[in-house]
Design goal:
four-stranded antiparallel β-sheet; 17 helices; elongated; single chain; alpha/beta; five-stranded parallel β-sheet
Length: about 575
Amino acid sequence: MKEKQGDLRRLVGLMAPFRWWMLLGVLLAAVTTGSSVGLMAVSAYLIAKAAVATDLSELGVIITGVRFFAISRAALRYAERYVTHMTTLRILTALRVWFYRAIEPLAPARLWQVHSGDLFTRTVDDIATLENFYLRVATPPLAAALVTIFGCALLGWFDLRLGAALLVFLLLAGVALPLLSYRLSREAAAAVIDLRAAMNMRLVDSVQGLADLLAHNAAAEQHAGVLAVAARLAAAQRRLAWVRGLTNGLGALCSGLAGVTVLALAIPLVTAGALDGVFLALLPLAAIATFEAVQPLTLSLQLLESSRAAAARLFALIDAAPAVLEAPAVLEAPAVLEAPAPFPAPALEVRDLTFRYSAASAPVLNQFTLHIPSGGRVALVGPSGAGKTTLINLLVRFWAYDTGAILLDGRDLRQLRGDDVRALIAVVAQQTHLFHATVRDNLLLANPEADDAAMITACRAAEIHDFIASLPEGYDTLLGENGVNLSGGERQRLAIARALLKAAPILVLDEATAHLDDATAQRVLANLEPFFAGRTVLISAHRHIDLVRVDQVVQMTAATPIQ
């Protein structure tokens, strides 16, 4: 329970910058419902008064009151919807920015074990669920409290028993029924959040792995798994719908009983002469109109659990400590990016580097040492699992190493800002991610200020320009999700062009020609020769063709476990 309350407190804290807009929305919601009560009361009074009035002038003020409440109700309803929805959208915008900034330092070391479908659900669906927290969870109770005071005071002005009777039924509809709804729907509301995430994970697997599922004749099994999760999700949603229908029906019953009770109490007052008969219609109709404020409360408590569960999923992810922490006082990276080519490329040195992915796993690198002088070219060779890619990931500060040091011009990476380190290094990774955008957009990711001439030069060096030119819209052609419209070799060459366009003083090629045939690989490597000049180059390779233009070849083997 304390944990749940903590999640809600943190969620409220995130919305604190919008508190004045939120308060304005609550006041507008209360005044709007108050106008509805006033319209119902004055309209009923007008009809009753018109039946006994002998002079039309007696109705002038009442008619003006009806017009006032009718117009103000419409205007206030518009203002209330505008303010509350605008505030909700601003809150959602702030939450999305907050969540992205919170998970960015966690990538990739803390996120590689999180399913992409689950991460997508947290980023999109869970945050979208939180739009209900202000609009349908926080606002209705506060507005209902204000309207309850107004409605009970209105009826109590005629007779205290009328106000007390209305208060009893409002408490039943606004407190007892929501608590009943919460008790009946609490587990289902939380289950919907978890099952929705499970459904998205299965759907992402089904879409991304469709070719493999078909090739291994496993599509039917995957389909059955999706249907099983869908059935459980539908059952939880039906449970919520059943509870919502039950409480809505009971709420309508309370509203009707309140009207009948107020009428039953008012009739003796009229017959005893303590109350003018023209008010007999006003009282029960005003009481019924007051229930407009408490009707959303049953849904509010249902959505409270959904919002809490969604917030808990977000907090559970961002509360993980980043694997790479910035030093309390960081140094500036070597100032080479502003210098014209050839770059004063920093020297790269690795001293007794030891790294393991978890405390329980064997070290991937064990006291590994490497030195690349400024402008030098070194190739790393060795079997899969020898730590070549791991070393590159440590170089760009995706993970933090255990012992030893990686130095740029004698400065430990741990004393440099991560962004400054990555600005110095252009990497062609084994697995290249391409966004569902144009060729131009994917290339400019490396250097947003690059012009077309630089882009074409980089693409010619990577032997990809002619292919791009043959596309329907050239550099403005959409690539599809993760470059689905490209072959493996085309994706790799585009990644090489993007790395060249970054114009960083350190160039790292991690199996950059793995998807290329020998002839194309030879041409690409020959084209890269001018780009190698003045840069510190580190190449991870399996093929001997990648080793022709290097100064030194370092053989890597699997790390020896530390005793």
